[in-house]
Amino acid sequence: MTTTGLQPDERAHAKYDRLIVAAQQVPTVTAVVAHPCDETSLRGACEAADADLIVPILVGPKAKIAAVADKHQLAIGGFEVVDAPHSEAAAATAVQLIHEARGDLLMKGSLHTDELMRNVTAKATGLRTDRRISHVFVMDVPSYPETLFITDAAINIFPDLDCKRDIVQNAIDLYTQVGLGTPRVAILSAVETVTTKIPSTIDAAALCKMAERGQIKGGLLDGPLAFDNAISREAAEIKGIKSEVAGRAQILVVPDLEAGNMLAKNLTFLAHADAAGIVLGARVPIVLTSRADSVRARMASCAVAVLYADARRRSSKVPAA
User: Fold this and answer.
1) How far is Cα 92 from Cα 84, in angstroms, rounded to an integer?
2) Which of 35, 124, 230, 288 could be cross-linked to 249 through a Cys-Cys bond (beta carbons 3.0 to 4.6 Å apart)?
3) Could you tell me the fold of the domain covering 9-128+298-310?
């Protein structure tokens, strides 16, 4: 067995620590925080601000936000607070602030995810782009040497091929723009051979061909791959799979939300992984945190969004050739 010289707890946080440190090196971005009306969401915004990751704009009932801050001794005196009477209004106001170019990223507070995303995806007033909106889990798995992206396990339930193309491209763009390099992308299924009996294997093969033809850019794709031969070199060798991706994937593209959600939660509860999360494909990155998230995972979610927002901001300033 190889060793890294790190104890398990240190290994568990090493990948996230690198992302947080990298995010602290870029100019601070403004984060619009929708309805931070409980301790977890308000503390998360304060901690990210204290770490020099963001400048928060808090959107929600001013009196309620102030009461939470006072009760839990959170210093919000230096933050702008935009009054909104309830969670639905807070979500709508937060989206409007993004339209007004007041913020570089959007953060979910203590409102329900569907409230926020309903306003994000609204046809007339939302933050849609030509790209399909999708979610990426950024996993820090202690036993795996790579930062592992899993997509989509939270937004698209049963994506078709066109949707999967956007899901893959969103994840590749995130991986490259946060400074992790060119990703190895495994398109997962139950088996590693193409068969009409399992439609996800056909989608996987099509996505790989799309990458060959330039319809998906920036990553190395292979699929279909079963989970074991996507992340284990030994399993890939036993199956006789020879590729640059098999055995050392960095992005895992799941066939549907059910598979992805179970995979991410298995890694969290059985492999003691941390799971940061970010929504892509909108006009700005969106941080979706859960009350069950660790402090480290919340900070990593914010750090990834900051790095992505900064990369997009810099690319938009590059003059056309």
Assistant:
1) 9
2) 230
3) Rossmann fold (3.40.50)
